[in-house]
Write a structure and sequence with these properties.
Length: 630
């Protein structure tokens, strides 16, 4: 799908700086920016390389300042935000911006017309940037690459020691720092070795988040080209020698259905590196999270024709299992992942079931049943973080002081915003679902499944008697200790393939959820009538974290809601109407993505990560599984 802005939209900085584009390379790196051309985040740049795929990501080429000159006409081909000023003013001469598998800007002033195209090479830390003269006269192009070597979460400031070395060749400039060589290839350019610093770039979105918004950048050279009508100059930036010398021809993506648009969006999150096959949780700042990956597997993999990839992901996570738990998060640097999660492993079982239901593979099934046996044993006998089955009722309890183990995991210093200790509703729905999946799988393989059935029956009986809150007409969010706040976690329990929820109770609870939690873009994380409700997701990081699960809307929850409604007999036409905003959501923030979250209060502004894997995955899964697709 091609997402585009016209000239008027590009010149409106309030709009064009909030429309972001993303070009991932499939190994963890990416190029990213805004339609205006201004880098508004510390994560924006033309080359964010993954040094040890899929992590250790570093910004190497932040941008290229450019000018086109013909006679007395001078056209800026870039824009930057400095304190109190935007310079150059290239955004003011944009005719259009578009993004598909490449990002393209067309600048025009008088008879000077230049097309700039950015293309990221799949499977490589390489970006190609082309400047093509679309005018009828020869034009001179001057380009100043702006480089740094920094962790993509950090800031960069002038220092005398940077870079450690610059190597100058006839068609290349190599900038080396900390063992990483950035190779700038610029065939046909007249290179002027003018090295110097650009100071105090300002990233507006970091200011909004209460973070340091400023960077300094280094310019290693000036590149000049004389381009006749129709001619182009190509620059590449890469770690090592680039494999391509031209940008491939574009594919026509016009007029595609919603399922195709969502499938195209889903492809951005798949990562196939030598260390593991996985799904990045979101761009720009997340790595791969176990919970997010397992929730996203059906949508990102199974509904895009990547069943083999789903199996690879599940095998890779199973190989990292420790004490019956799969990793919660793979870290940016280092070898030891985090395991502080109660639900990632339970979602793993659900992803196994969905994968085998989609395509039965007995070898894979035999591997997975061993993993499920290991999970059940550790959960019954007790594993890390207080996760253990309560033998008195067969339900799963977890947590403790200072721990946040469910998906509502915001923590500010020592303050766990939504601790949810004890027995959370979706955790026990997922636990019972895991036991039933193991029964199903063992029956398919001809194995004895009576022990798992006994455990599932005990837990199911106690689930309804303990979680149902008759007076409020919905399920407790947690029991022991009890919390009857209206939250969407009960919907997850209702939506599972082997849901323990009583149909009559579930229908009553869904009415309450639909009345108070459902919005056009997802479900609120807390009812608006609850005392702790926060309707706006804005401000510095502490304020954002405090509101993260206290009313903020999460699009991924629309998937469980739609599936729960479908299980209880809702009409497909009604379900499709509920999801009707998906097309707009794909173009209102991250172009070709769905945001991580939205404000709880109308008008429900998008926020968080502009591209969130489980947001896209659950919209795609529910659209295909429950709404008839297309």
């Amino acid at each position: 799908m091609i997402y585009s802005l016209d000239s008027q939209q590009c010149k409106n900085l309030a709009l064009s700086t909030k429309r972001e584009w993303l070009l991932p390379n499939g190994i963890g790196g990416f190029a990213m920016g805004t339609a205006s051309g201004i880098n508004t985040r510390r994560y924006h740049g033309l080359l964010v390389a993954s040094i040890t795929p899929p992590t250790d990501r570093r910004l190497l080429l932040a941008g290229i300042d450019g000018w086109a000159t013909w006679g007395s006409t001078r056209l800026a081909l870039s824009s930057n935000q400095y304190p109190g000023a935007v310079h150059p003013d290239g955004f003011d001469f944009l005719e259009s911006f578009s993004v598909s598998d490449r990002a393209t800007w067309i600048y025009r002033r008088g008879q000077v017309k230049i097309q700039k195209t950015v293309y990221v090479v799949p499977g490589e830390n390489t970006v190609l940037v082309e400047y093509r003269n679309l005018g009828s006269k020869s034009t001179e192009i001057s380009l100043n690459p702006l480089v740094c070597h920094r962790d993509f979460h950090a800031n960069f400031f002038e220092r005398e020691s940077y870079p450690q070395s610059i190597q100058i060749g006839s068609d290349q400039t190599v900038i080396e720092e900390d063992g990483v060589e950035l190779v700038l290839s610029h065939p046909g350019a007249m290179r002027s070795p003018v090295a110097g610093w650009y100071y105090r770039f300002e990233h507006q979105r970091e200011t909004e988040r209460g973070l340091d918004p400023r960077d300094d950048l280094f310019c290693p050279c000036e590149l000049t080209y004389s381009l006749g009508a129709g001619e182009a100059a190509l620059i590449s930036a890469s770690i090592g020698e680039p494999s391509l010398e031209t940008i491939p021809l574009a594919t026509d993506f016009a007029g595609i259905a919603l399922s195709k648009r969502l499938s195209e969006a889903a492809s951005k999150f798949l990562v196939m590196a030598s260390s593991r096959t996985t799904i990045l949780a979101g761009y720009p700042w997340f790595s791969d999270w176990g919970r997010d990956t397992m929730i996203a597997v059906p949508g990102i993999c199974l509904h895009t024709g990547h069943t083999d990839t789903a199996q690879s992901i599940l095998r890779d996570y199973a190989s990292q299992m420790r004490n019956g738990l799969i990793p919660n998060r793979f870290v940016e640097k280092g070898e030891i992942p985090d395991y502080n999660t109660v639900d990632a492993t339970l979602w793993f079982a659900n992803a196994v079931y969905k994968t085998l239901l989609h395509t039965w593979d007995e070898t894979f099934a035999q591997e997975m049943v061993k993993a499920l046996d290991q999970i059940i044993w550790h959960h019954r006998h007790g594993t890390d973080f207080g996760i253990v089955v309560d033998p008195s009722d067969g339900l799963l309890k977890q947590g403790g002081e200072g721990l946040q183990l469910t998906w509502m995991d915001a923590k500010i210093g020592d303050w766990v915003v939504t601790p949810r200790h004890g027995k959370p509703v979706e955790i026990n729905g997922l636990w019972i679902n895991l036991l039933r999946i193991t029964c199903w799988l063992k029956a398919k393989l001809g194995q004895n499944w009576s022990a798992e059935e006994t455990m599932a029956n005990q837990a199911t009986q106690n689930f309804e008697s303990k979680f149902w809150h008759e007076a409020r007409g919905h399920y407790f969010d947690t029991i022991e200790p009890g919390d009857a706040s209206l939250r969407p976690n009960q919907v997850i329990a209702m939506s599972l393939p082997f849901s323990p929820c009583n149909s009559e109770h579930a229908m009553r609870a869904l009415e309450v959820v639909e009345r108070d939690l459902l919005t056009p873009v997802g479900l609120r994380t807390l009812g608006p009538n609850e005392p702790a409700y926060e309707g706006r997701f804005e401000g510095p990081m502490k304020q954002l974290d405090a509101a993260y699960h206290q009313g903020t809307v999460w699009p991924w929850l629309m998937g469980p809601f739609i599936s729960a409604k479908a299980r209880l007999g809702a009409d497909v036409v009604q379900l499709r109407k509920i999801m009707k905003n998906a097309v707009e959501m794909l173009s209102e923030s991250g172009l070709g993505g769905i945001s991580e979250c939205y404000d709880g209060d109308a008008p429900h502004r998008p926020n968080g990560c502009p591209w969130q894997a489980w947001s896209v995955a659950e919209y795609l899964r529910a659209w295909n599984e429950d709404c008839g697709g297309d």
